[in-house]
Design a protein that fits this description.
alpha/beta; Rossmann fold; 2 domains; five-stranded parallel sheet; two-stranded antiparallel sheet; 11 helices; 7 strands; 42% helix; binds magnesium ion
Length: 224
């Protein structure tokens, strides 16, 4: 095995965690004069989020443009309109906007640890807008060498083309590049493209470490 020279990270649920959608639903319901229990709101969101990761939703091209993203996600969120009237567009605005997402506690330390080892770092994301300002806002911009966004490439994960473009942007060969993500279908497209791949465990609490220290261990093991 050759040493890993570059690491590509997925963005959502890998380096950044979403806003607490359960609280968003409770608040939005209250604004509409509707009471919904926190546990019910959470369950409602979990159902939507799981549905949103299904292959049939991924196949809708939602990350190729901002318009498609809004349209496809809002249509999915309409399933919750029965529980809270007209919640779909509010959910989209308050939960899906990358500006509302925050890094996991181990995101910056992991990127720094990789950087100190001379490893190139890239972001590869199915996303309809530029993530650079998001990394800048959280003081992480200097820890990322390259961004590869689906809307710019015109291909979404798991399409191998996006991973090949991303490793090219890093200047590393696919076989020397490790892709890290949380989605067993979308992110695993890296394998078809000839990259190495590490699948994170399902996402946990937003304020708990994501388990990214494992990535540093994998990189270290590859140097032997
Ligand atoms: Mg993800």
């Amino acid at each position: 095995m050759t040493p890993i020279r570059g690491v590509l990270f997925d963005w959502g649920d890998t380096l950044f965690s979403p806003p607490d959608a359960g609280s968003v639903i409770v608040a939005a319901a209250a604004e509409r004069g509707v009471h919904i229990e926190a546990t019910k709101a959470r369950a409602l969101w979990d159902e939507l989020w799981v549905a949103g990761k299904m292959p049939e939703e991924l196949a809708k091209g939602r990350d190729l443009s901002a318009d498609a993203h809004r349209e496809v996600w809002t249509a999915l969120f309409e399933r919750a309109n029965g529980a809270v009237p007209d919640i779909a567009s509010t959910l989209y605005e308050r939960v899906m906007d990358p500006r509302a997402w925050i890094p996991y506690p181990d995101t910056a330390p992991t990127l720094r640890a990789l950087r100190s080892r001379g490893v190139r770092i890239g972001i590869v994301s199915n996303v309809p807008r530029d993530l650079r300002p998001i990394f800048t806002a959280h003081g992480l911009a200097e820890l990322v060498d390259a961004y590869t966004h689906s809307f710019e490439v015109g291909a979404e994960k798991p399409d191998p083309r996006i991973f090949l473009r991303a490793s090219e942007a890093l200047g590393t060969l696919p076989r020397d590049t490790l892709m890290v993500g949380d989605h067993p279908v979308a992110d695993a497209g890296a394998i078809v493209a000839g990259l190495r791949f590490y699948l994170l465990p399902p996402d946990g609490a937003p304020d708990a470490p994501r388990g990214l220290d494992r990535v540093v261990a994998i990189v270290d093991a590859s140097q032997d």
